[in-house]
Amino acid sequence: MSTKRGTGSLDTREKILNVSVELFMENGYPGTPLSLIASKLGFSKAALYYHFKNKDDILNGILNPLLDRIDALLEEAPQRFTDAESRWKFLVTYSDLMLSDPRAVSVLAIGGSQVWLPESIYNRIERHRVRTIELTMLPGMSDEEKVRSILLMDMMHRETVFDKRRFVIDGMTPERRREIVYSFIKKSFED
Amino acid sequence: MSTKRGTGSLDTREKILNVSVELFMENGYPGTPLSLIASKLGFSKAALYYHFKNKDDILNGILNPLLDRIDALLEEAPQRFTDAESRWKFLVTYSDLMLSDPRAVSVLAIGGSQVWLPESIYNRIERHRVRTIELTMLPGMSDEEKVRSILLMDMMHRETVFDKRRFVIDGMTPERRREIVYSFIKKSFED
DNA sequence: GTCTATAGCTCGATAGAC
DNA sequence: GTCTATCGAGCTATAGAC
């Protein structure tokens, strides 16, 4: 995949991805011209086309590693969970997976309805969203419990995906916040 | 404000706003050219400039009525609420206000980090977001309670703002869903 | 592997006729 | 109040030199 690298330096390819993520977060994906990415890297726009075949290819480079791993996780999962413990274990695994790729997650957080995404990526994300919600639902749930599952899965997803615009309490660390959020979600699931 | 109108027909201005909202939801704001709005209305791009001074002015026409009313509500509100009942009354009022303008809410739902918004509108929305969260916090709350307030306000806001991409249960009406969601939020606040 | 130059396109906005 | 025509800016992507 990659050539051998020296001590501290990253692939040019990786540098491009990292700078792109920063700019996509600031300006959005359609709002970030390739010229801006190039100038922040200190070289010209055309040079980007040596490393990526077009703009969407940069986006794919950022998102695909994470999306592939989510695909794999969802394929391993059973049709439905039948008990709360194994469901919770799955949710934690899913959450850890998301948190393991902050670069991709940052770009996912730009979204919203994400109409600007290439259709192939959009469809994958939508499939993940629907499937994870389905997997929170246990057999024999009432309407109230189903709706609550949707709300809580949504809450968990947002907790992994959003970092920037978050309302921060005094000196609370992100880890402490996450601990509180997850225990609230777990308790609400069990209630 | 408006000239007298015939029986069923809307202002051209209102027609433009309604068509724009539909297209903004489909393609996003930056992804919707004025030419598309014009063609869907059956007239030319230049005609739009008789009714609005530029593209952002259309967006303002959609959002400002709601944002103005939210501003007014937030100015009426006390510095902080001191009891759970008056806080809940405020939250219901805020929610009803949002639901009273589905057109504006649809456009707000496009967002996400909403970097595409004109700065003036973006700042207003951010102020609303922060202020409403502050108002959910009662004196003497623990860290856990503060975080839960953030989560629940966020949940409530999303319940008013999102319609489209929602995971729908069988034959459940939106009203039934909202009833379940609100009772969950209320219960979680009181817990 | 990076450059300059430019093709080719789309868009917002304006001018001016009707 | 709506039209045609067009300007000018900004963008993706490619060609071809080094």
Give an overview of the whole structure.
- The structure is a homodimer of 191-residue chains.
- Chain A has 191 residues and is mainly α.
- Chain A has helices spanning 12-27, 34-41, 45-51, 55-76, 84-99, 102-108, 119-136, 143-161, 174-190.
- The first copy, chain A, has two domains: 8-52, Arc Repressor Mutant, subunit A (Orthogonal Bundle), CATH 1.10.10; 56-190, Tetracycline Repressor, domain 2 (Orthogonal Bundle), CATH 1.10.357.
- Helices cover 68% and strands 0% of the residues of chain A.
- In chain A, helix 1 (12-27) crosses helix 2, helix 1 runs parallel beside helix 6 and helix 8 (143-161) runs antiparallel to helix 9.
- The radius of gyration of chain A is 19 Å and the shape is elongated.
- The first copy, chain A, starts with 11 loop residues before the first helix and ends with a helix.
- Chain A binds chain B through residues 25-28, 30-31, 109-116, 126, 129-130, 133, 143-144, 146-148, 150-151, 154-155, 158, 164-165, 167, 169, 172, 176-177, 180-181, 184, 188, and chain B through 25-28, 30-31, 109-116, 126, 129-130, 133, 143-144, 146-148, 150-151, 154-155, 158, 164-165, 167, 169, 172, 176-177, 180-181, 184, 188.
- The structure holds a DNA duplex (18 and 18 nucleotides).
